[in-house]
Amino acid sequence: MTKYSFILLDEETEGFLLQLQELGVVDITRARKPIDEDSAAMLEKAGAEKRALTILRKTDFKEDPDREAIEAAAGTAECRGDYSTEAIETEARLKDLQTALYNARKTAKARSPWGEFDKAAIGSLERQGLKIRFYTVPRKSFTESWAELYPLQIISEDKNSVWFVTVAGNSEEYSFPVKECQAPDGSAKDAEEEAARISREIIEQKGLLLKLTEHTDDIGKEYDRILTDLDLYLAGASAEQAAENRINVFTGFAPSGMDGKLAGEFDRMGVFYIAEQAVEEDNPPIKLKNNRFASMFEVLTGMYGMPEYREYDPTPVLAPFFLLFFALCMGDAGYGIILMLISIFLKKKMPGMAKLAPLVMTLGIGTFFIGIFMHSFFGFDLLTVDFIPEWLKKCMLNGDVAGFPAAMVLAIGIGIFNTCVAMVMKAMCYTHRFGLKENLGTWGWTILVVGGIILGGITLLGLLRSEVAKWIFIVLAIISGLGIYIFNKPGRNPFVNIGAGLWDTYNMATGLLGDTLSFIRLYALGLAGGMLGSTFNMLGGMIMDGCPVPGLNWLLFAVIFVIGHTLNIALSCLGAFVHPLRLTFVEFFKNSGYEGSGKAYNPLSIKNGND
Asked: Is the N or the C terminus of the chain less surrounded, counting Cβ atoms within 10 Å?
């Protein structure tokens, strides 16, 4: 983000805000300060210094075809004492001269077909009763027989046009089939000499600007001094002055990628502003930048809190985990299809909810595939259905692992993986923000827990001998112990560090165990939803079998099936949203060290019905 500071008089404020609103990219806050003649003069002078700095910093004639002449002019140029005023005036003169040069060259080009002539001689002929008329026509329109009407002289011609004049007496009646054009005010040579004179003056002014660039640092120091004096003056000025004798001070933030465009717009507005790179102390607003998938889950990050300026954005990691958690809590492929249909309905029939449609569709697709994996379709067990191919059944989760349901073991495994990812993110982010030296304790716990889990997994898979794994774990424990108990706070009393490490050990042991077991809810909610859906199917089947009226039994079954599963979908969706949100906000954010105390980027803009 780039930080912008604006200072405006009261009467300028409304127009400025309207223009900012049209831009729609600046997040702005406002304060009011008293102003008098002294502070107004300082403000005006600061604006002049800022303008001069802008002019001189973009002054570069290295690619100018007259570079050598400009450098020679700079060597002989003399600067007055007020460098900023001279720079502004020189730039204004340069603009006027460049306009004049363009016009002179344009005039010379327009006169060149008429050749060299003496305007005084033409005036003398007219005083003798002869009228000279000027014409230009396309070559294909020129007719030689025109020379029979009046004396005619072709001045010049090319493949496209013919330039000629006619001579006739002032007293005789004159008629010609072509409309005459305006006579040139002078010869092409006169215009070329004027252009050459202007070019020499432009070189002199460019040389003066180049000379002034040697004083850029002096102007910058003067600019900083004026700003410092102005801030000090405004801070001490009386707050009891008249309302019309006040200025408004604005602080705004905009994405750094728009610096060039905004600088041009602010210069066009003529406002006094200061642009500088935002730092963490400014607490600038946060605009998240994610891909199409992750951006759908930014609403969840916003519910907890936006990241601080140098804090990481958890959305890219939050997104796949939340999708997985939601799908496991729903746990039914049929419910996934219903969610996809709801998404289509929101997009087509409810414009106000259309922004949620992609998220609902994504959650529905995830629920469908996880439902297949968990072999549940509207409460029916797909493993018992004959028409499901065997290869697909082999891809479904079934059976026990170490005497526990495989789905429960999966939920705990996901929790362990989620915690490991969070701990690695915390260590990396804290190192980026505060430095490695201040986070040796954090890295100690990360190496011990994550490294230990990876080492244990490799050993269980038989890829590493247990004796070797033991010594590797001892080395990990020693390295981690140094960070956890000795160097967790460099410069502090070692005994205090040991005590703090022991306290962290207690909190980590109890916290990690509770966080991991908390993920069992993914298994429990999926199991509860599946059992409730199966119960409604069973009730419908019992009524269908017990009803003696043909046709009515199917109707009753359909009513119970639809009502039952509608209730179950509603309950499952509620649980599948709340509990994954809790796992994210509590378990994941706690272990990842995410604070979320930033504020969202909310630019001043023109709102419409779709916002």
From this structure: C
Q: Quote the pLDDT of residue 369.
A: 93
pLDDT for residue 235: 54
Q: Which DSSP category does 306 fall into?
A: B
Of 277, 305, 306, 271, the C-alpha closest to 289 is: 306
What amino acid occupies position 311?
E
Tokens of 559: 């009513």
pLDDT given for residue 9 in this prediction: 65
pTM above 0.70, yes or no: no
How far is C-alpha 500 from the chain's CA centre? 42
Torsion of CA 292, 294, 297, 299, to 10 degrees: -70
Q: Of 559, 584, 517, which Cα lies nearest the Cα of 322?
A: 584
Query: Which residue ranges make up each domain of the chain?
Result: 2-101+196-282, 118-185
Contact 99, 140 (CB under 8 A): no
Residues 202-244: pLDDT tens digits? 888 888 888 888 888 888 888 778 777 776 666 554 333 434 4
- Find the distance separating the first CA and the last CA of the chain, reported in whole Å: 23
Other beta carbons less than 10 A from residue 328's beta carbon? 27
Q: Is the pLDDT of residue 266 over 80?
A: no
Residue pLDDT, tens place only, 26-61: 777 655 555 566 777 777 787 788 888 888 888 888
Q: Which helix (H) or strand (E) holds 481?
A: helix 466-481
Q: How far apart are CA 98 and CA 205, in angstroms?
A: 11
- Alpha-carbon torsion (214, 217, 218, 219), positive or negative: positive
The secondary structure element, H or E, covering residue 40 is helix 37-57
Compute the chain's Rg from CA coordinates. Answer: 41
pLDDT tens figures, 487-526: 777 777 778 878 888 888 887 878 888 888 888 888 888 8
- What distance in Å separates the CA atoms of residue 606 and residue 603, rounded to the nearest whole number? 10
Q: Is the dihedral of CA 19, 22, 23, 27 positive or negative?
A: positive
Contact 407, 514 (CB under 8 A): no
DSSP state of 182: P
> pLDDT tens, 188-211?
888 888 899 999 888 888 888 888
Strands 272-277 and 130-138 come out as unpaired
Torsion of CA 456, 458, 461, 463, to 10 degrees: -130
* Distance from C-alpha of 199 to C-alpha of 62, rounded to nearest angstrom: 17
3-class SS at 600?
A: strand
| 37-57 vs 83-111: helix crossing angle, rounded to 10 | 50
Secondary structure (3-state) at 175: coil
Identify the weakest region by mean pLDDT among 354-358, 380-384, 601-605: 601-605
CA distances to 449, 471, 510, 513, 589 from 484, rounded to whole Å, are: 12, 20, 16, 19, 21
Q: How far apart are CA 224 and CA 226, in angstroms?
A: 5
Confirm if 598 and 305 have CB atoms less than 8 A apart. Answer: yes
Is the pLDDT at 332 greater than 60? The verdict is yes
- Per DSSP, the residues of 373-406 read HTTEETTEEGGG-TTS-HHHHTTS--SEETTEEH
Q: Name the residue with higher pLDDT: 23 or 515.
A: 515
More confident residue, 250 or 413: 413
DSSP letter, residue 272: E
Kindly write down the DSSP assignment for every residue of 520-587, as one continuous string.
Answer: HHHHHHHHHHHHHHHHHHHHHHHHHHH--STTHHHHHHHHHHHHHHHHHHHHHHHHHHHHHHHIIIII
- CA pair distance 235, 225, nearest whole angstrom: 15
